[in-house]
Amino acid sequence: MGMNKRPARSNLYEICAANHWRRLFECYKQDGPCHQIMYTFKVTIEIEDASRNIIECYGAPRRKKKTAADDAAEGALWYLKNIGYEMKNQ
Prior knowledge:
By secondary structure, this protein is of the alpha+beta class. The protein has helices at 8-19, 65-82; strands spanning 22-31, 38-46, 54-58. Helices cover 33% and strands 27% of the residues. It is elongated and about 45 Å long. The two termini are 15 Å apart. This is DRBM domain-containing protein.
């Protein structure tokens, strides 16, 4: 990750705020022994347009909660980009 690159969570928050969508990050699962816990995060987005879609994206298991949340956000951003929602000036 470059020094100027923003975390995926920040980009997702910005898109959701601009479109007035609700989003929720949650720690979906914790696996492993206490000294090597792997966190899996899920992000849920409620797209409030004519279709009223709800998107759920799960990240890969990661050792740090922030990294796990970013992984879930990256999946959501990929999906949103492929259905036509994208941040301007990226």
